[in-house]
Amino acid sequence: INTSSPLSIRQTLSSPNGVYELGFFSPNNTLNQYVGIWFKNITPQVVVWVANRDKPVTKTAANLTISTNGSLILLDGKQDVIWSTGEAFTSKKCHAELLDTGNLVVTDDVSRKTLWRTSFSYSQLRNYKLSYVTLTSEGKMKILWSDGKNWTLHFAAPVSSCDLYGACGPFGLCLRTSTPKCLSCQANSSAKTQGKEADIFYHMKHVKTPDMYQFASFLNAEQCHQGCLGNCSCTAFAYISGIGCLVWNRELVDTVQFSSDGESLSLRLASSELVGSSRTLIIAGATASLSLLTILVFSAYTFWRYRAKQNVAPNFMFINTSQDARKNDLEPQDVSGINFFEMHTIRTATNNFSFSNKLGQGGFGPVYKGKLVDGIEIAVKRLSSSSAQGTEEFMNEITLISKLQHRNLVRLLGCCIKGEEKLLIYEFLENKSLDVFLFDSTLKFEIDWAKRFEIIQGIARGLLYLHRDSRLRVIHRDLKVSNILLDERMVPKISDFGLARMFQGTHFQDTTRRVVGTLGYMSPEYAWTGVFSEKSDIYAFGVLLLEIISGEKISRFNNGEEGNNLIAYAWECWCETKGVDFLDQDLAGSCCPLQVSRCVQIGLICVQHQPVERPNTVKLLSMLTTILVLPSPKQPIFALHSRDENSTSNDVITVNGLTQSAVQGR
């Protein structure tokens, strides 16, 4: 496509090998025309990109062409502009072509420089897997992957009928077994009650708690129990470690019981509803207990014989208490659901912590790669005896990250405590951390602008989960580029929760006299007064965002002007070129200038001096994923200078003598 050869409504443009096709199309039952890209020779038509999504062509005449300023434009029959790329270039001679990657690109005919491209990045030439999402007539969503020859099922949901919301109705319980079934409570109008003293609680274990709960400000399980008992409308309660007291004052909807894990739910009943079956329950209970004891004794004997023959320990064992855990102040509720690995298993997996297995060194201590006997690769973080913060971070990470699960958070597989040795075991991520790619003159080309923008969005989604969507509300307090790990598909995962803090209810701000973190990423109010909140993580995200765009490190940046740091340079570029020049110039050919400019603007908004001027995480993700009009940033304050984050110094620094807070650099 060029100025003399436009694409009209009845024409199409194919990629060189006939993989994709560009043209005009009309959705079913409509006369509206859209410019789009779809897979060629695939029925039904699968459209992967649409230009004029919000403004269709309603006339019978239209064409896609190149304007005199080099931008790609869609004109209707009256030659009015329906859609354009919005770019203006000095190039006088250029053309648009469709590549086999699915990208429509505008190229300068003289310099061969790419002036504009779509953001669609699927490429059969680079062995990407094509995904297909479908919804079956039974209401099941399926994701299938294609290797170029066959479609294979990758994911299906719901896995169980119990995963459907409210599957068993009000006061119904869905048993999530191999053959799920519903159990329901029925109202008994003849149940005898003589006030709250006559009510009792039936305790159900391994439960996914019902929807529509309310937080109650009770300090322990007994207060939670009595609080529900004293409220006539309270139908159930649950006291969950790390979260607190949850109460239900209405119908119990979407309750699921598992064979293991889950929480305990206490269901309120009239005592007379259980009295009639007490004798039967006692007899049945005694019989069941005797049978269970026999089975347990036989199982223990069989297991002992097996261990004696094999003379090896299992990869890991699940425990609720241990002497080593108690010595380190771990309560049973803290270790619930955590896998405890045996020390010899980890030594074998890491070749006795050999130097060849060492992945790196952090503030916590060294990190090693390991491989369990079943082939699972792991990363082992070993507490260094010289780490002043290590023990506290270790305890914090065990009790916190084991309760969090999200695609953009690193997964903790378990831990190992043996005497003075303390180890954290994580999933192994092939591509290590983001800084390995970002600040390397060669590896940085493996993450072009499109991939960097995906990483930025992934980090924001992980942060949203921590701040708003998880059952715990968490402030990370040490968000930085070296704490962003990458899996084999470059999906970002937030790691290192040693400094994280958890909040309950609506309380989401705190003050500390021990300010810890990485200089350069700490917000002014946290570094100077010890106050931290959701907005502290937003500030750190802003710094991280600017590092990803520029490819420069906050602690090492120097553009030749004394005292000028990365944030100051971002502001200068924003004022002069709307931030386009702030991008690492080695990536200029792969970027969308408008997208880069928008990201620089978001980064500057995130590092505003006043917390109230920074967005919350919900607003931040909306800024990154929509085209909402952004507020204009104010000039940031650059009073806090950064040090090399790799410094291992534990010196305590008083910032400007303004407060009694102390800053510990990591």
From TrEMBL:
Subcellular locations according to the entry: Cell membrane
The organism of origin for this protein: Brassica oleracea (Wild cabbage)
Apple domain mapped to chain residues: 185-271
UniProt domain Bulb-type lectin: residue ranges: 1-119
Chief localization: membrane
Gene Ontology MF: a single term: ubiquitin protein ligase binding
Pfam family, one: B_lectin
Bilayer topology term: Single-pass type I membrane protein
Alphabetical GO biological process terms: innate immune response; rejection of self pollen
Gene Ontology, cellular component aspect: plasma membrane
Residue ranges occupied by any Protein kinase domain in the UniProt entry: 353-638
CDD domains: B_lectin (cd00028), PAN_AP_plant (cd01098), STKc_IRAK (cd14066)
PANTHER family: PROTEIN KINASE DOMAIN-CONTAINING PROTEIN, RECEPTOR-LIKE SERINE/THREONINE-PROTEIN KINASE SD1-8
Keywords: ATP-binding, Cell membrane, Disulfide bond, EGF-like domain, Glycoprotein, Kinase, Lectin, Membrane, Nucleotide-binding, Phosphoprotein, Receptor, Serine/threonine-protein kinase, Signal, Transferase, Transmembrane, Transmembrane helix
Name the record gives this protein: Non-specific serine/threonine protein kinase
